[in-house]
Amino acid sequence: MKKTTILSLDGGGIRGIVTCIILRYIEEQLQYHDNPNAKLGDYFDLVSGSSTGALIACTILCPDENRKAKHSIQKGLELYAEKGGSIFQVSFWEKLINPFGLLNEKISQETLEKNLNDFFGNLELKELIKPCLITSYDIENRRAKLFNSCKATISTDNFYVKDICRATSAAPTYFSPVQIKSMYGQIFSLIDGGMFANNPALCAYAEARKTPFAEILKNHQKANYPTVNDMLIISIGTGIESRSYSFKKLEKSGKIGWVNPIIDILMSANAETVDYQLSQMFQTLGQRNQKNYYRLNPSLKNASPAMDNVRRANIENLIQAGLSYIDNNRQVLNQIVQKLIKNKI
């Protein structure tokens, strides 16, 4: 039996550039060692993403005319570098009348929605080439809303990909909440999935456990309903957040003073906790299978930890942070490449 290969991608706004740089290296090595036309979407059995990670996930799972991966990860990197500025840019006037996003959401959603429409068009969730799991949170029903491409093919839970990408990106204080409608007319009021699963790797594990991969992928080299022993999980973050908060400043800061810190802390703490839980799960396995969980999360180096810093210098710093991580972890990344080749069907 071959391992069920799972890719999980964290949220982090423009910091998704770091994720794309790491994925580009993996894809280039797959092209060099296995197939000159290799694309990431053809090597993973399930891809999960929150917020910016969900946009990357949907990009690499877009179908071509043969139901293979249409885009290389380079396409995603180009989108961040070219479109990031227009999506996250806040005009001087908006900053003047709405400092820190305290009066309403900090960024207008129109540009984001236009870019999502231009890129994904009327692509439906059920048309993605592999099982995927995209996170969001339903603010009216107060529960997680998980978009699952497998479920979309057999139920009424099918959506336009552009709509689920808008929903999973609706980070409070950055973008406004959104209402989206399923293909059957059901309406959901949603915000960013990063609120509860900025690192969606554990969600991906849970989803994989109840997925009949052999049947879906039409190949019995993959296990139906795989256990942790049957999985290869690659989880990629958008950079380690090392910014500290002063006790003195927050001691009496009140609600307004906590707006940005609380979101930042919730997201980074969630990612760290999920990594701990999965590490402990894999430590219970035999010596060989213990090594089938990888958490790749670079230092941001000189890059800003802000999710909306789209200055050209910061974009370059994010790229450099990704490249530096590759230089220092080439052996681990090459090991992942060999395992992806070995477990491809």
UniProtKB/TrEMBL annotation:
Which Pfam families does the UniProt entry name for this protein? Patatin
Q: Which InterPro entries match?
A: Acyl_Trfase/lysoPLipase, PNPLA_dom
Query: Which residue numbers does the motif GXGXXG cover?
Result: 11-16
Q: Where is the PNPLA domain?
A: 7-205
The biological process GO terms on file are: lipid catabolic process
Location of motif DGA/G in this chain is: 192-194
- Protein name as annotated: PNPLA domain-containing protein
Please report the organism this UniProt entry assigns to the protein.
Answer: Chryseobacterium potabilaquae
